[in-house]
Design a protein that fits this description.
Helix content is 27%, strand content 32%. By secondary structure, it is an alpha+beta fold.
């Protein structure tokens, strides 16, 4: 019977073997990923988190009243979106209900940094104005008068839908 004796000289130190490094790799990878996640969390803001829920609730009630006011006035809008231009055709029951200037807020549902507010003046029967180019995705459009008495809202998916019909009565 052959027997081999293993001496301390024959065993390589732990750092020269593969298994300890394999076992250390995954926890070390989790630590690195944790630091990367921490850096991303500190660098970006939580723009969608609301601090004061009561205030937001009362604002929603006021907005519903403003939508009702637009419905009472019989307002409707047709938006035409081009790469760097916005054209709004606003109509109502009575021509006197259409103001000389409107505010259009263009918002992205998840990226607050891309939001825009445009002040458009009446040019004949339409409102036109320049805007920063909008990226691909879903965009929300809010139209209101300067005194904030009425409001209309609509949404579109760009670049496929470049015309929006906003009618608060429907």
């Amino acid at each position: 019977m052959n027997s081999t004796t293993i001496t301390a000289k024959d065993i390589a130190p732990w750092y020269k073997q593969g298994w300890p490094w394999f076992l250390i790799f995954f926890p070390a990878l989790a630590v690195v990923a944790g630091f990367i996640t921490l850096a991303i969390a500190l660098d970006t803001s939580d723009g969608l988190v609301v601090d004061d829920y009561y205030k937001e609730g009362t604002a929603i009630v006021q907005e519903i009243g403003r939508i009702e006011r637009a419905r009472e006035l019989g307002l409707s809008a047709q938006l035409n979106i081009r790469s760097d231009m916005l054209r709004v055709e606003l109509s109502g029951k009575d021509a006197t209900t259409i103001p000389e200037r409107i505010l259009v807020t263009v918002t992205h549902p998840t990226q607050v940094g891309k939001d825009q507010t445009l002040s458009l003046h009446k040019n004949g029967d339409v409102f036109e104005g320049a805007m920063a180019p909008l990226g691909t995705g879903r965009w929300l459009f809010h139209i209101e008068d300067e005194t904030h008495t009425w409001r209309m809202s609509g949404a579109t998916y760009l670049p496929t839908e470049t015309n929006i019909k906003i009618d608060p009565s429907s």
